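Record now logged for everyone:
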Amino acid sequence: MYIYFEMIQKNTILFDSRCNLCSKTVKNIMKIDSKSIFNFISNNSKSGKKIITDYNLNSITTQTIILFTSEKEFLIKSDAVIAIISRLNFVFKIFNIFSVIPKKIRDIGYDFIARNRYNWFGENDNCEITNDIY
């Protein structure tokens, strides 16, 4: 799916900024991403809401992280997680090995964590990462 690539020129992560797990994960990715290969867009920001509406992502956006790749595609759930981790730097490329596990099985684990993340990690109304693009 093509998305605002005049705005999004590199790998862009659309994430749930109300979720403490998601926000902390994004902050950790920002620390590790020394080459700045990722942009980050909160699903609660103006740009995030526009993307969600324009591409009819309402049904999935709070249930999963979405990676819009520089190859002009988007990945969700475990595919997004593997792609994000493996793009961070050479050391993390080993995480591509998880791709051999069938997607259906990987996504069962992803969905279990996604369903319980607010209970386990909490949620917030004031995430530091709420601007349009980082």
About this structure: The chain has one domain: 11-121. Residues 11-121 form one domain.
